[in-house]
Design a protein that fits this description.
Number of strands: 12
Strand content: over 45%
CATH class: Mainly Beta
Largest sheet: 6 strands, mixed
CATH superfamily: Gamma-adaptin ear (GAE) domain
Radius of gyration: 15 Å
Oligomer: single chain
Helix content: under 10%
Number of domains: 1
Distance between the termini: 36 Å
Structural class: mainly beta
């Protein structure tokens, strides 16, 4: 299990610029992730191994308004997303951050062999922000094996008035 915390915008920019590639190059992200990023969202958390990449993108936060975002899971190399595994994403908010839906399952998102994407939403009650944590449980498979994954990512939220 990994735990990744992203604390500052400068770190986000530096991490987002890092290449996460396999021997065959990066796998294409699911369409929903590309749509969220294209709509002015920012990558706030990312986790990557040789087998998969997790990327969280969200829009800017305003106190009391719902923030919309996306959790994208993209298999790498010869791996495919395991559609038969009971994928779950548990979201929690702290310090004035309330998540819209605390538990996401496969039926709540778009799940395909090439990856999965899940819409997320939360509100931030105050300008000094809080934190959102996500615990993801999913599986990726190739011809030889299936890997059960438990990944934890979190990001700070600061609402702008």
């Amino acid at each position: 299990m990994k735990r990744i915390t992203i604390a500052a915008s400068a770190c986000l920019v530096a991490i987002a610029a890092l290449p996460f590639a396999s021997a065959e190059g990066p796998a294409p992200a699911p369409k929903a992730a590309a749509t969220a990023a294209a709509a002015g969202s920012t990558v706030v958390a990312k986790a990557s191994t040789d087998d998969y990449q997790v990327q969280i993108t969200v829009a800017s936060a305003t106190p009391g308004a719902e923030v919309k975002g996306n959790v994208a899971i993209t298999p790498k190399a010869d791996f495919k997303f395991n559609k038969q595994y009971p994928t779950k994403i548990k979201l929690t908010g702290t310090d004035g951050v309330t998540v819209k839906q605390a538990l996401l399952k496969a039926k709540d998102g778009k799940v395909e062999d090439k990856g999965a994407s899940f819409p997320v939403g939360y509100t931030c009650a105050k300008t000094d922000g809080g934190k959102v944590s996500a615990e993801l449980k999913f599986s990726v498979c190739n011809a030889e094996t299936c890997k059960l994954v438990k990944e934890e990512v979190s990001w700070n939220v600061a609402a702008k008035p």
